[in-house]
């Protein structure tokens, strides 16, 4: 006998039992894509996804593109809940046009990404990858690194995650520069400067901007050339903000001393995977595969907030504060 409960599709990886139980206890049937628990949903073929979305009212999505065509074909789909804070893969304009709601999990992984950002800064500055590799090969010689303490760190963007990074940097007595279009009138311990000044003066540049048509490749060959020679670049925001080919060239030329990367252009364009893997293989690069927001604690928070957003929209109540990014109900 078919399950009479309204359906919610979950395709994001590492969705936990507590969040699934919340959906079920709220009266919804949970549909999954049948992927391995740690698999990205970005590779789900269109025809398979079409079958999964039949009769679904809410979709908790990870990295899968949500296009106008998908939304138009599934009129029962009322809410798309992105497990995460970036929603560049969701056509928010189409969602508004078609009367749908798009939500994010605001605040779920700010601390996790900030911790990871500091981890990458420290790992690159202290040359942990090189020292670990040498020791594992029986070479006890030391590759001397640099301190984070006392450095000038430039933050491009000043949203929740960047503010959490700035808070952590205060413990390292860093001078913190911020280049951002939206900046509070008084932010303790940070100085708002033009991007050109930030690039020229920072020992570490950390990217925290959203990916838009205007910000794509904001860190290109010219921006890298404008950076202080011997600086390091950290990107835990979005692949596409940095021109990976230009970064590879800057590292090869010695313009930058290293990079800490959690995101790559290859996440959107599989043809760029060899470039991403070549960057990750460099001794002065510490790389992770979009793992910054994937602490156990952050995943649990994000899963539950996404589930709460879906339940709220489908039951006519208010989603958690700050989570709605596109609302086509009006």
Explain what the structure shows.
The protein is α/β, with parallel strands linked by helices. Helix content is 35%, strand content 17%. It contains twelve helices and 13 strands. The chain has helices at 17-25, 46-52, 68-73, 92-97, 110-125, 128-136, 160-169, 195-201, 221-226, 244-252, 273-281, 296-315; strands at 7-10, 29-32, 56-61, 79-82, 101-103, 152-156, 175-179, 190-192, 204-207, 231-235, 256-261, 285-287, 324-327. The strands form two sheets. It has a seven-stranded parallel beta sheet with strand order 8-7-6-9-10-11-12, sandwiched between helices. The chain starts with 6 loop residues before the first strand and ends with a strand.
Task: Compose a concise summary of this entry.
With 330 residues, this protein is an alpha/beta fold. Helix content is 35%, strand content 17%.
What's the arrangement of secondary structure elements?
Elements: E1 7-10, H1 17-25, E2 29-32, H2 46-52, E3 56-61, H3 68-73, E4 79-82, H4 92-97, E5 101-103, H5 110-125, H6 128-136, E6 152-156, H7 160-169, E7 175-179, E8 190-192, H8 195-201, E9 204-207, H9 221-226, E10 231-235, H10 244-252, E11 256-261, H11 273-281, E12 285-287, H12 296-315, E13 324-327
Parallel strand pairs: 1-2, 1-3, 3-4, 4-5, 6-7, 6-9, 7-8, 9-10, 10-11, 11-12
Antiparallel strand pairs: 5-13
Helix pairs in contact: 1-12, 5-7
Write out key terms for the chains shown.
330 residues, alpha/beta, Rossmann fold, 2 domains, seven-stranded parallel β-sheet, 12 helices, 17% strand
């Amino acid at each position: 006998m078919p399950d009479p409960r309204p359906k919610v599709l979950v395709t994001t990886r590492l969705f936990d039992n507590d969040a699934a139980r919340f959906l079920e206890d709220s009266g919804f049937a949970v549909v999954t894509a049948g992927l391995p628990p740690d698999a990205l949903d970005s590779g789900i073929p269109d025809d398979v996804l079409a079958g999964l979305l039949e009769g679904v009212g809410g979709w908790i999505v990870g990295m899968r593109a949500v296009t106008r065509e998908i939304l138009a074909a599934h009129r029962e789909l009322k809410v798309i809940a992105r497990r995460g804070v970036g929603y560049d893969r969701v056509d928010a304009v189409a969602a508004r046009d078609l009367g749908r709601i798009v939500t994010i999990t605001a605040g779920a992984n700010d601390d996790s990404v900030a911790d990871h950002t500091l981890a990458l800064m420290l790992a690159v500055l202290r040359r942990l990858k090189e020292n670990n590799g040498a020791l594992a090969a029986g070479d006890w010689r030391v590759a001397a690194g640099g301190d984070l303490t006392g450095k000038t760190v430039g933050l491009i963007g000043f949203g929740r995650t960047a503010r959490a990074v700035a808070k952590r940097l205060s413990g390292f007595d860093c001078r913190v520069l911020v280049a951002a279009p939206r900046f509070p009138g008084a932010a303790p311990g940070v100085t708002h400067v033009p991007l050109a000044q930030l690039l020229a003066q920072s020992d570490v540049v950390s990217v925290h901007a959203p990916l838009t048509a205007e910000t794509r490749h904001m860190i290109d060959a010219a921006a890298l050339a404008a950076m202080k020679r011997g600086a390091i670049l950290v990107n835990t925001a979005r692949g596409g903000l940095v021109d990976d080919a230009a970064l590879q060239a800057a590292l090869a030329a010695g313009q930058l001393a290293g990079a800490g990367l959690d995101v790559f252009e290859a996440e959107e364009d599989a043809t760029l995977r060899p470039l991403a893997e070549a960057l990750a293989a460099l001794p002065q690069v510490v790389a992770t595969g979009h793992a910054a927001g994937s602490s156990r604690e952050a995943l649990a928070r994000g899963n539950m907030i996404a589930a709460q957003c879906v339940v709220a929209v489908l039951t006519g109540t208010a989603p958690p504060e700050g989570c709605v990014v596109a609302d086509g109900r009006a």
